[in-house]
Amino acid sequence: GHPQSVPDFQPSANATGLDLQQSNNIEKKIVPLEDMDLYNQQQQQRQQAPKVEQFVPLDDSASDASFSLCGVTLSPLSASSYSPMPSQNYGGPSSSMMPQQPMHQQHPVAQDQSSGASFALPTSDVEAFQAMSFGNQPPLYMPVDLPGQPMPHQAASSCYSPPPPSVASAVSSDATGGGAGASASASSAASVSGGARRAKQREDKFCGVCGDKALGFNFDAVSCESCKAFFRRNAAKGVEALKCPYEGNCRIDISNRRFCKRCRLRKCFDVGMKKEYILTEEEKTEKRKKIDQNKLLRTLETLGLLPKELTPSELADREIMSESDVQELTQLAEYYRQSAEVRVAERHGQRAANVDDLINFAELSVMRVIDLSKKLDEFRQLSQPDKVCLLKGGALELILLRGVISFDPDHARFLDETDTASAESDSMQGQDFLRAAGPNAGHAFFQLARTLRSNLQCDHHTLVLLLACCLFSPDRAGLSPEGRDLVEESQVKYCMLLERLLRTRFTVSHARKVYPQLLTQLAELRGLEKDFSDLATMSNPRFVPPLMSEFLDLQDGGSGSAKHPQHRSSPL
Amino acid sequence: GHPQSVPDFQPSANATGLDLQQSNNIEKKIVPLEDMDLYNQQQQQRQQAPKVEQFVPLDDSASDASFSLCGVTLSPLSASSYSPMPSQNYGGPSSSMMPQQPMHQQHPVAQDQSSGASFALPTSDVEAFQAMSFGNQPPLYMPVDLPGQPMPHQAASSCYSPPPPSVASAVSSDATGGGAGASASASSAASVSGGARRAKQREDKFCGVCGDKALGFNFDAVSCESCKAFFRRNAAKGVEALKCPYEGNCRIDISNRRFCKRCRLRKCFDVGMKKEYILTEEEKTEKRKKIDQNKLLRTLETLGLLPKELTPSELADREIMSESDVQELTQLAEYYRQSAEVRVAERHGQRAANVDDLINFAELSVMRVIDLSKKLDEFRQLSQPDKVCLLKGGALELILLRGVISFDPDHARFLDETDTASAESDSMQGQDFLRAAGPNAGHAFFQLARTLRSNLQCDHHTLVLLLACCLFSPDRAGLSPEGRDLVEESQVKYCMLLERLLRTRFTVSHARKVYPQLLTQLAELRGLEKDFSDLATMSNPRFVPPLMSEFLDLQDGGSGSAKHPQHRSSPL
DNA sequence: AAGCGTTCAGACTGTTCA
DNA sequence: TGAACAGTCTGAACGCTT
Ligand SMILES: [Zn+2]
Ligand SMILES: [Zn+2]
Ligand SMILES: [Zn+2]
Ligand SMILES: [Zn+2]
């Protein structure tokens, strides 16, 4: 959906100025009759368009001239703003409603006319433009087609005086090999095509409208940035809708271009700007959509959720998650990151050798899970008892999942993302934890970590999502019925997010395999309790709830609630 | 110092459009030779200017024509932007550096010329302007004086084509009695003066520059608002500094006026706009000063500190306080107002019959004085002991002054400004207070109130200032030396503010009398202690300081300081 | 690199208010 | 009269896709 996209009918004339650098390209522009017919047929077939008007006569000698002229400079029709509908033959924008692009390969005639004047070899750039546009002291606006003009392209819609007649002589010096011979039968056409080349080089530098410095083609004509913007803003209105504050024959230059819209716009059209090159509203939204999509992809790549430089076909096999999904995911990951910074105040700085490492690690993990949980809206909406149920019932699983997330297999120790400098405080605890948790604890944990990390290729975000899914387990003992519904709803939400993440990270077909496996892992996590028998006390109601309740209260910011325990549900 | 102010030489022609309604005013415009000479002489005498060039010939018949032209429409010189220095004869801005005003009474010629065309009685306003300015299809700019032109005013500086020749016939109908005879010898001048009148009425409506609707004169020419603004913004640059993006002969109209600065500005000058009418930077600051002054006066009137509608001479006898003074004063009054809202929490709502009313009233007053004091920067900078000294030492005086402020003589009771609905709570306390304070207490208080309120005409603000002066008494016992200096400094500040307030409320001479009397009252206040013997306990160190200290601490917002009495100075 | 759209600061204008 | 304001337009700079 973009004018710049390569059109389907490449073989037709392309003269974007660049191609002019390669002299043999000119040959390409001269399309033999048969090819042209073929091309027209293709067009008709492809677009199911009504029969296209043919303007290539079959065997008239004059037809050769007019046709080869078309091949090089196309027809006056395509450049004239007064021609209501450019023919499809010339690759103009299709008249169907499909967002087919205007093409670059056909070329304005108007440029060639005015460019003919530039051969006077002016001394300065400004003079060059002036000569090019007006001659020296041009008469005022004369919208005339002088019949019998010797130069055929003069019949086009230029509103200003014809260039001085020094064209032909100046051309010869620059008319190098390739194009000249091929440029067909009409003798005048030869000089035109050579002139077109020369003019291109000149016009590469100056705006055909106002004479300001130009960077290249805009809307199919060489123009400066300001005229480009002007044309985009005003072309839709049309010349007739604007009115000239003067006499309607303003000569536009760099100093007065701002003043008369009408004459400026008219000149824009005159030098070959085409409003069809301006993106329509639909094309713009489409393009914007594409840009957003790309931005999203780049974000995902940055987050490591998408391999870099995927081919479009590889991309097509995936279902990229939405921007709001990414938003939510990164938010969750940020909460996790913050939770990893939680320290238990009393222990901070003093290596607690006398306290059981088992308790140390577990407590810290639980604290961090609590910290994370309390930032989730879904968790906040639960009643205090239901919160405790989730945390209590899921304590071991959550600790283990957190362990997998923070476990560094390379160094075989736990690392929380922050505080890596003094990492031993946590990492060593983890080792002790595994040793103390039970005889088979280490094996079970490593098995879990390997399955998730290696077999199922879980990355950080995936694991954090899994953690959320685990937290919101609706089948925890003791949940209130209403709480159960809320929890299930939340779990569904995070599970679906997880699934969409998988369909982003992997192909859809692969995600379809991995997703149930992850849920299976979540289920198997429950069976691990036997391996962590010594840790079972963590889920012992006599131990956990007071700790949790207090911590839940303490972090609410309400200094009163800790002192005055209230049994209202949801103090948050 | 303003162009709009009425000039000194009123008798000369004044034709601001309004005067044109009165037909006999035309006589005034025709100034006989002798008057003109006299006028010139006056001008020379007044301004001590070098001899002014005379351009009124003495006894040429042609001179009559040109002179009467001057009388009515002035000379081309005054309208032409090319005349480097307008003659003082015509009331133009003086060439001296004194800020003498440009005058309104002389009139542009350019308008009169173009206005001659308006007699074609166009159907629409726009047509009227177009006819007026250009005729139908005028040739381009021709800065010519055609010699021998039949219409003398045609020789002026209009750059556009002459109006259609239907002038003379249309004029006769409007040439009413008064002016015609007086308008002197040249027959053509008569029609011109009639034309001028007619033109004025037309020109009152249309901008001489662009033809847009005009509201009146701007910079001495009839123009629309936009051309006014344009002229103000660009006149200083001068025509030469601007360049025309076209050929330098733009015909300005409402649709293209914004495009060519140069030609628009040139036309502004052509129609008689004068850059001397634009306020200089100094004039602008002066004007702004005046506006600020007026704003200040209005503020003071609103605050009741200045009688409304003072004559300038009455105003001259006063010294209006500065805006920052007003700011400070209103701030102080606001603090007082807030302090009057202070309630003693424990007593709020329960009528304390068992507690001595004496204590009730006194305590409440002191509390409010403390509340006020603590909002004053100067007070805050004092050390805690010094604060206590001021409050303790001035307690009785401050209570009494507050009493005067809040005393309502009409109902003979105390009213604090807020809580007037349930006013009894305070007002009755006051009565009891006076009864309980001592045998002579009532008399002494009423005496004080009468002196301040009636004799010395103290208003609310004055009394509040007096309260501040009383608070910052540097001779209170127990003040530290540093504190004493600070307090004195503060008292001086408030006393000076008081003095300036008096010089605003009264004439300077009256203020000079009142001010020392107020200070005397402040001194006499000290002698009143004997009349309030029973209240003397208030200044008893055993009673007051603990109360005050606590209250001072309590209102600091520092919850700790009340519980942990700290003897650092200035916890604020 | 070419050629689209987008964004934004700045210039000016002309209206309105005081 | 000036001040202030809102609104328009411009054009340079930038980002993005092909
Ligand atoms: Zn341009
Ligand atoms: Zn124009
Ligand atoms: Zn105007
Ligand atoms: Zn101009």
UniProtKB/TrEMBL annotation, chains A, B:
Localization (cell): Nucleus
Entry keyword annotation includes Transcription regulation: yes
Compositional bias per record (Low complexity), positions renumbered to this chain: 93-108, 182-192
Statement: the UniProt record of this protein carries the keyword Metal-binding: yes
Pfam family, one: zf-C4
Keywords: DNA-binding, Metal-binding, Nucleus, Receptor, Transcription, Transcription regulation, Zinc, Zinc-finger
Recorded GO CC terms: nucleus
Family: Belongs to the nuclear hormone receptor family.
Name of the protein described by the UniProt record: Nuclear receptor domain-containing protein
Organism: Macrostomum lignano
